[in-house]
Write a structure and sequence with these properties.
Layout lengths: L11 H14 L3 H31 L6 H8 L8
Length: 81
């Protein structure tokens, strides 16, 4: 697998927390940053996929009412719209 060097700025509080994690676990900053970035990218791609599927459903007229959507989510009451 090819690797690419990324450079970015992070606030000092975040960097200090990363330092603590790395020193406590004995694993490199790179290890922890790769794990964090992998999780973030995976979650964001899943969100984008869900949005794309929702748009396809909406374009096909496959919609449900807000009441049914809230009921599916288990939300009760009238103050959620």
């Amino acid at each position: 697998m090819t690797t690419i060097l990324l450079t970015f700025r992070a606030n000092d509080r975040l960097v200090r927390a990363l330092d603590l994690i790395a020193s406590t676990t004995g694993k490199s900053h790179q290890h922890h940053l790769n794990r964090a970035l992998t999780g973030y990218v995976k979650a964001e791609l899943a969100n984008l996929q869900a949005i794309a599927e929702g748009i396809i459903d909406a374009d096909a007229g496959q919609l449900i009412s807000i009441e049914n959507a809230l009921a599916t989510l288990g939300v009760r009451g009238k103050n959620h719209v």
